[in-house]
Amino acid sequence: MDLMRPLAVVVALLAVWAAAAEGFDILQILGKQDEFSQFCKLLNETHLAGDINRDRTITVLAVANGDMGHLTSGHYSLGTIRHILELHVVADYYDEKKLKQLSHGATAASTLFQRSGFAPGMAGYVNITQHRGGKVTFIVDDAADSVKPVTFVKQIESHRYDYSVLQVSSVLSSPEAEAPVAPPAPVNLTDLLSKKYCKSFAGLLAADAKAFDTINGTKDTALTLFCPVDAAVAAFLPKFKNLTAKAKTAILLYHAVPDYYSMQFLKSNKGEVTTLATTSVAKKDYTYEAQTEADTVTLDTTVTTSTIQATVRDDDPLAIYAVSKFLQPKELFKSKTKDLAPAPAPEGAKKKTKKKPGSTSTAAAPSGDEAADGPAADDSADDAADKAGAAPSPLVRWVTAVATVAAVLALVA
Predict the structure, then answer these.
(1) Residue ranges, the chain, pLDDT below 70
(2) pLDDT tens digits, one per residue of 240-294
(3) 94 vs 102: CA distance, rounded Å
(4) Residue 157 near residue 165 (C-beta atoms within 8 A)
């Protein structure tokens, strides 16, 4: 009996950890029910869905299609709609049980609108009140007396202490959130890159119409661009010139991500990054790993490891970061990890010098019209150091889980 208790605790903790590691996708959760299709559509169009998915300890107050009211009338700009929707994202965890057990029967909770910096005073807070009979209502703080609170309808899905998705009876009203939002000033991508760190990379983009049009056409919706600094472009240019036209386009698109990643998000999250090359080149992966070590963000392609040197722009929906090296995809160049264990030399043959991780390697021969681009450029010594110091995220998660289990066992022993 004494042994079963700690074992049960360990199993429960591992289950919680595994569920949290799987991630959270608000569009996938609400997409299971057609009645929330309009709410999902606006979350997607305003890019708020991505921010919700990246957050933790969060409650989403979803509204069914028939209760969306003026939010779908076409009266508001996307900027204003985003602010209104931000009122429906509470920066705390509330499930049905917690709502009906509120201390003193009421509380004020901060929302993403408050966090956005556009909410004056208490306009970004929502008052949650429990009434007799189990009824629970939500209303924006400082709302006019004529504004009616919205009512909790049901719990859609929750993961305890992590995220919760609830249905409410209608859209929350707030004059501050509904205020007109001026459209962002147009961004000239070439000028922006040329003025800060990335003039050479801007020149390569401008010379490739397909890559430029694809990247430039994405910047107003959601784009993160990792531009190599001028010195990195100069070092890689001899290899770049030997690539075919198709490979040149692919490697330029490889530096662009069709999503907005703030610096804060990059530093607090690890994982695989999908690029515009991934979505543009059939049957090719074109991804890499983004990791953080000692407050430094690294991008590991398995061929090169590049670090973010400076922020060129970080303003939703566009983020541009200057990186230390040209990102070389494993689809065009031989991965360093494949050189870690070279085959032994045949007996009698002259011994070859064993290669070390991060040493010079020859480029893999791409198939089709992505012709081989010649010998791979020399990787600097800090490539190997960066690579060795960047533990893969699954390992980090398992180490964390094991440490947690060990602590629990110590407590219950």
Answers:
(1) 1-23, 337-413
(2) 999 999 999 999 999 999 998 888 888 888 889 999 999 888 778 999 999 998 8
(3) 10
(4) yes
d(CA 286, CA 222): 19
User: Residue written as tokens 């670090």?
Assistant: 307
Return the structure tokens found at 339.
């050189």
How far is Cα 340 from Cα 120, in angstroms, rounded to an integer?
A: 57
163-168/150-159 β-pairing: antiparallel
What would the 3-class secondary structure string for the chain be? CCCHHHHHHHHHHHHHHHHHHCCCCHHHHHCCCHHHHHHHHHHHHCCHHHHHHHCCCEEEEEECHHHCHHHHCCCCCHHHHHHHHHCCEECCCCCHHHHCCCHHHEEEEEEHHHHHCCCCCCCCEEEEEECHHHCEEEEECCCCCCCCCEEEEEEEEEECCCEEEEEECCCCCCCCCCCCCCCCCCCCHHHHHHHCCCHHHHHHHHCCHHHHHHHHCCCCCCEEEEEECHHHHHHHHHHHHCCCHHHHHHHHHCCEECCCCCHHHHHHCCEEEECHHHHHCCCCCCEEEEEEECCEEEEECCCCEEEEEEEEEEECCEEEEEECCCCCCCCCCCCHHHHCCCCCCCCCCCCCCCCCCCCCCCCCCCCCCCCCCCCCCCCCHHHHHHHHHCCCHHHHHHHHHHHHHHHHHHHHC
Helix 393-412 and helix 4-21: axis angle, to 10°? 150
Say which residue the tokens 């681009």 belong to: 373
Q: Which residue has the tokens 């490739």?
A: 208
Terminal-residue alpha carbon distance, the chain: 12
Residue 231 burial (CB count, 10 A)? 12
